[in-house]
Amino acid sequence: MNKNKIIGSIYLALAACIWGGMFVVVKSVVSEIPPIQLVWLRYLIGSVALLVIALVAKIQWHWDKKNLLLIFLIGLIGDTISIVAQETGTMFSSAQLGSVVTTATPAFMIVFSWPLLRIKPTKGKWISLSLAILGVVSIVGFHFTGNNLLLGVIFLLIAGLTWALMSVLIELVDKKYSIIQVTFFRYFSCYCLFNTCYFHTKENLIKYILGQRAHLVKSFILRNRIYCNSIFPLE
Description:
This protein is mainly alpha-helical. Helix content is about 75%, strand content about 0%. Helix 3 (about 65-90) runs antiparallel to helix 7.
């Protein structure tokens, strides 16, 4: 097997582990910080980390209106709507349920690839999509107990669909753009969007950052750092 494929597979497996563990951290944090504020903090940290990586790696920056608007749209759909829906859904349901429902995201990419990338799904891909949906349904079921559990599942499904759409739209960005630049612009555009939101519980946010449950903040920052390093390793 090609060495790059092995390394790529390791990075993907690591990213999947970090992504799955994120739901546990989010479930703990979201009781103190509302989803929109939490996403704002994530993208503040992510933007700074990616800018540092971009400067150290000395990537070549590109600027053209068509691709920048596309990247902004990607950030709006995937990094704003999807992540807010994901963390809202996790707040209303559970970390385990959030992780299970969003595992169907890659299967949904098959649907969006057809009209956007002109990639017609094969019979095997349709079977994979069906199995993924059946797998989620068999675990989640149709009997929802508890307050707002159904609402949580709906938010998680929205998160999975919008993330799948974002993953397909990224393929339309000109290949001359570094993935670091694309991700930085996505994060920074989301950060600017969330800056327009008023922090109704600003006191809770300040208390949280200054020390209340500091171990969770450290865990949250560490997870973002590991995620950035695993997806964007410096050469």
